[in-house]
Amino acid sequence: MRNHIGKSTRALALLLLFCVAESCKQQDSSTDAGALAPLLLGGASDAQLLGALNNAGVTALSAPPAQDPALVALGRSLFFDKELSGDRNISCSTCHSPAGFTGDALSTSIGAGGTGENQLRVVSSGSMVARNAPPLFNLGAGNTRMFWDGRVSRDNATGALTTPESTLNGITPARADVASQLTSALAAQAMFPVASDVEMRGAVGNEIRAAADNQAVWAALMARLVGTNNGTTGGMAAYRSLFSAAYPGVAYDDLNFGHAARAIAAFETASYAAVHSPLDEFLRGNPNALSADAKAGGLLFFGRAGCGGCHRGPLLSDANFHGIAAPQLGPGASGGDDQGRFLISGSANDNYHFRTPALRNVELTAPYTHAGAYTTLAAVIAHYSDTATGLRNYNGAGLRADYAATVDTNASHIQARLNARDPRVVRPLGLNATEQAQIEAFLKSLTDPSARNLSPDGN
Ligand code: HEC
Ligand code: HEC
Predict the structure, then answer these.
(1) Contacts of 46 (CB under 8 A, 6+ apart)
(2) For a Cys-Cys bond, which of 85, 350, 426, 427 suits 342, CB 3.0-4.6 Å?
(3) Is there an atom of ligand 1 within 6 Å of 148 CB?
(4) How confident is the model at residue 50 (pLDDT cuts 50, 70, 90)?
(5) Residue 252: CB atoms within 10 Å
(6) In this predicted structure, which of 13-17, 73-77, 139-143 has the lowest mean pLDDT?
(7) pLDDT, the chain, mean
(8) Is 129 near ligand 1, meaning CB less than 6 Å away?
């Protein structure tokens, strides 16, 4: 999604800009010479931090490409609409809510049949979902892997998809009519929550749950939205006009759920871009955008603490899979002991590995890690300071009781998770309290102020 060209030239130019700014101050020095010293000191560490950011490929985010407003309008309507769920009781926005900063503030989500919103949502007649709901910020076209285990991906060079639905996969998919609408990994992702029994498909008894396979689920949803017999039987007039505006000239019978998913992706891309964090402003040339603590934290993050080995690139993620011995709780994707990427690749090297999360707006999107084990950034940083002690001592303190009761304390699982750690997170980091607070300040500099108050309808 982001332009990676000319990173080093860009950073050099920025360094130069800062120097020019300093010398400007020097020249019109009606001010006292003493004021210059701290500025120059700041300049030196600024240059160091810019160098570290540049080495890690961290660039200021640019706004995503403009999205077709008719697609966005359709996508917005679908995203917030419970009609997309079998029992009409849950929408995408239930688990990715504006009030929850595009997540749900729960350790692991609660699917169809649950009641209440965000922190107040309870299982009722539904169930917990295996994992934590990730935020939706900055997930435009450049992201090629979706989900904690990367089970939906798109090769943006060939357009080939890899998904849990084989008819969509490869360069010549069996259902090319559907796959051709899935023009990004983000669009492909939107096909799957509606097909998940626990997330949106709902209880036995509704026609979406009764559908025989994924393609039948998607067809049944389109029958709900636009109707059958070219829109003359059933369906909703409002959706017919939204789809017509988004896909002018396409007959209703030629629309499939891929068209809906593509519109949802356009909405997510347009509404949940966040490109004005203090770090972005710093990268754009404003040395005062970051506090001294955030700068010191940034130097630790990309230096001694080694975070930038995995949290790199514009989104602070390498989009790869690693083990950090994050605690396990909730139902888990493989019966309580979630083995992450291994479940998709079958490779022993991937056991307990999860995709490195992007860190933009991370301040807002607690709880953290794939099962939402940690409720504060300070707790995540403390975990990294000594991952073995962090995992062994973890007991879910501070979590809601129904989640705390599900913490996996099985000793052999814990040992297996420790064995699966990336070598970079094995040695205790020996960070003192000040250094941990500085890293926290750096993570907080990734917050776009506009993300603090998202509009309830994604407008
Ligand atoms: C029951 C709660 C729930 C509902 C409803 C739900 N999601 Fe999610 N969403 C999740 C969880 C949990 C994950 C992570 C699952 C995993 O990685 O295994 C997720 C993952 C995602 C991701 C991947 C983000 C990333 O960084 O990889 C996107 C995008 C997304 N959801 C969008 C949607 C859309 C669009 C809908 C509606 C069509 C939707 N979700 C409905 C809970 C939900
Ligand atoms: C070896 C790669 C790697 C290194 C090094 C690393 N991380 Fe991570 N980070 C990950 C992965 C993978 C996860 C998700 C793991 C999971 O949920 O099981 C993660 C999760 C996180 C999260 C939670 C984000 C969320 O949305 O849930 C934060 C915050 C974080 N890391 C910060 C840091 C900091 C600070 C450091 C340095 C002290 C660091 N990371 C070092 C790979 C890494």
Answers:
(1) 18, 287, 295
(2) 350
(3) yes
(4) very high
(5) 20
(6) 13-17
(7) 92
(8) yes
Ligand 2: which residue has its CA nearest to atom 26? 368
Closest CA to 62 of 276, 363, 317: 276
pLDDT at 42: 54
- Give 415 Cα–ligand 1 centroid separation in angstroms: 30
Taking only the tens place, the pLDDT of each residue in 240-294 is: 999 999 999 999 999 999 999 999 999 999 999 999 999 999 999 999 999 999 9
Closest Cα to atom 11, ligand 2: which residue? 356
Q: Is residue 8 very low, low, confident or very high in pLDDT (cuts 50, 70, 90)? A: very low
Q: Which tokens is 8 given?
A: 């080093």
pLDDT of residue 44: 73
List ligand 2's pocket residues with C-beta within 6 A. 305-307, 309-311, 322, 324, 326, 354, 356-357, 359, 362, 365, 368-370, 377, 380-381, 384, 422, 424-425, 439
Instruction: Give the integer Cα–Cα distance in Å for 260 and 201.
Output: 16
> Does ligand 1 come within 6 angstroms of the Cβ of 371?
no
Q: Taking the chain, what is the end-to-end CA distance rounded to the nearest angstrom? A: 22
d(CA 419, CA 324): 10
What single-letter amino acid sits at 45? S
The closest residue, in CA terms, to atom 9 on ligand 2 is: 356
Cα separation, 431 vs 439, whole angstroms: 10
Checking if the pLDDT of 6 tops 90, the result is: no
Atom 14 of ligand 1, residue of closest alpha carbon: 133
